Amino acid sequence: MARILAIESSCDETAAAVIEDETNVLSSVVASQLAVHAKYGGVVPELASREHLRAVVPVVREAMESAGCAFGDLDAVAATCGPGLAGALLVGLTYAKAISFAAKIPLITVNHIEGHIHAVILEAAQKRTPVELPALALIVSGGHTHMFEARATGYRLLGRTRDDAAGEAFDKVAKLLGFGYPGGPVIDVLAPHGNPREVRFTLAKMKGNTLDFSFSGLKTAVLRWVEGRDMAAEIAARKLLLRAVPQPSVAQWLEVTPKATLDLVASFQGTVVAELLRHAEAAAEQVDGVRSIVVSGGVACNSGLRAAVTERALGLPVYFPSPGLSTDNAVMIAAAAFPKFRRGEFSALSAPAEPNLTLA
């Protein structure tokens, strides 16, 4: 029996979890900073670092107490080392180093993107429907849109966004329309109320690697659509609603969102989803022997994406994480740490935070 404490602090969630023997989740605690960053319409790196400093000790303490164990019961401590915000990464990694030194247990550093993949692998193993390798791994979040070939021997990058990540495009479009931050979930719940074929969007044809993504042009097309209409009063009404009600209901959003805007929202989401699936299909044709597809990251929560996968029938089993493990969490970091623990791949206390860390 082995137990690993993991800490995640790459962006705006401070998280800690304890996992026993690969799949037994003893505890998982996440402290969100959404309320702190919402007023700025996005994550402010300096504020994120300060919030991590406030939260990391109580979050780890709560995770340990919920797991019913002491530091002496741990076999290793893991932490995200990148990619992410430099200051944010340093908080979690430094605290993990302190625990490693004081408790005399190994330190394991984990790639945040690999963590998202292992969130799916962990839950599939819990359900006794293991992910079959080689697999395509599509990581879609506010900070990442990457596609990998995942094999038992490692990862190969197949494509990535050349500009905005898909989740970032969702949030920026939502902010433009007055839906606040984070806006991706609002777009998701409003999209079914619009016609996804009403507004036609043209995506850029990529030169070079055709498996790369680009969403900045789509975001600009939405901006031009808005600029071509008198929407000031409509957007102001949504901002007023947000000030009065921090988390409006779908019914409240619909009261201040005309049909034309709902059609725009549905068309935007439909275009993003279609682009993600088109790339997944193209990659499956190009990579020999692919046996499954893994979709993870915050955008994996998107109901439109999940429904489209079912409707499109990609010809391969597709694995999504549960919503709680789609967004940033420490369970996924512990899950990714266990294979390293079994292989004895430990990190020195001098291991750096790597904001631009790649997975390959």
Q: What is the compact description of this entry?
A:
The protein is of the alpha/beta class. The chain folds into two domains: about 5-120 and about 325-345, ATPase, nucleotide binding domain (Nucleotidyltransferase, domain 5), CATH 3.30.420; about 135-315, Nucleotidyltransferase, domain 5 (2-Layer Sandwich), CATH 3.30.420. It is built from 13 helices and ten strands.
Helix and strand element order: EEEHHEHEHEEEHHHHHHEHEHH
CATH class group of the largest domain: Alpha Beta
Using the alpha-carbon principal axes, give the shape: globular
Helix tally? Answer: 13
Distance between the termini: 30 Å
CATH homologous superfamily of the largest domain, by name?
ATPase, nucleotide binding domain
> Spans of 5+ residues with little confidence (pLDDT < 50)?
none
Q: What percentage of amino acids are in beta strands?
A: 15-25%
Main beta-sheet strand count, sense and barrel state: 5 strands, mixed
Mean pLDDT: 94
- Secondary-structure-based class equals alpha/beta
Oligomeric organization of the protein chains: single chain
Q: State the domain count.
A: 2
Which key terms come to mind for this protein?
single chain; 360 residues; alpha/beta; Nucleotidyltransferase, domain 5; 5-stranded mixed beta sheet; globular
Descriptive overview:
The strands form 2 sheets. The protein has a 5-stranded mixed beta sheet, with helices on both faces. Strands 8-7-6-9-10 form a 5-stranded mixed beta sheet, sandwiched between helices. Helix 4 packs across helix 13. The protein is 46% helix and 17% strand. The protein folds into 2 domains: 3-120 and 326-343, Nucleotidyltransferase, domain 5, CATH 3.30.420.40; 133-316, ATPase, nucleotide binding domain (Nucleotidyltransferase, domain 5, 2-Layer Sandwich), CATH 3.30.420. It is globular and about 65 Å long. The protein has helices at 34-38, 45-67, 86-103, 112-126, 166-176, 184-190, 216-227, 232-244, 250-255, 259-286, 303-312, 323-326, 331-343, and strands at 3-8, 13-20, 24-32, 76-82, 107-111, 135-140, 145-151, 154-160, 292-296, 318-319. The chain has 360 residues and is α/β, with parallel strands linked by helices. The model has no long low-confidence stretch (mean pLDDT 94).
